[in-house]
Amino acid sequence: MTFQRARSEEQREIRRRAILETTSAMLDEMPVAEVTLNELSRRVGLAKTAVLRYFESREAVLLDLMDDRTATWLAELEQELADGVDSSRSAPERAEQMADVLSRSLAAQPVLCDLYGAQGGVLEHNVSVEAVRRHKRASLGNLAVMAALVRRHLPEVGDPAELFCLHALLIAGALSAYDSPPPSLLAVYESEPALAVHHVDLRTALRVAIITSLVGMLPRS
Question: What is the C-alpha separation between 185 and 31, in angstroms, rounded?
C-alpha cells in the first residue's frame, strides 16, 4: 500500500483508517509491546514522519484503536447478552448468566484485553493532553454503553454499573498477561505442577472476578 500526500479531509481520514486497520492486523500477529512505528509505517506504506502527521505517537495510534475495538466489541456483546441472560430468572441467576457471557466474550478478545493491560502503564504515556482527553471521552462513552447493557439485564446493580464495567475491563487486561505464558514458564509448570497455580485461564479467572463483583452489588434480600 502506497499513498501520496493527503490534500483533503476525506483523504486524511482514509490515511487514518488505513493506519488503524494496519495496526489492528499487526496486533493479530504480535502483542502490543512488539508493535513499533517503524514496522507500522513499513506495512502501511508511509514514511514514519508521515504516520506522525496523523497520530502523534505509537501510543496515540493504539489508544484510538482500543477505543474502536471496544465499540465494536460492545456491539457484539449486546446480542450475546440478549441471547445469554434470561429475564425470567432471579437476580442472582441472571448475575451468573451475565458472568458467563462477559467472561466468554472478553476471553475471545485477546487483542482488546492486551490493549487494556497496557493502557495505564504504557499507552497513556507519551501522548499529549488533547490525545488523552479525546481517549478518555471515548472511554467514558464506551463505559456508558456497557453499563446500560448491564443495567438492561440486571437493573438491580443500579448506579455502580459503570464502576463494575471499568473494573471488569481492567481485570481482563491484567489477567490476560498470565493467560499465555512463554515456553520457559510452561516448562516449569510441567516439571513442577504445584507451581502451575500461577497459570491463569483467562475465561475462568474472569468469571470468578465478575460474578464476585456482581453478586456483591446486588441488594440484600
Answer: 18
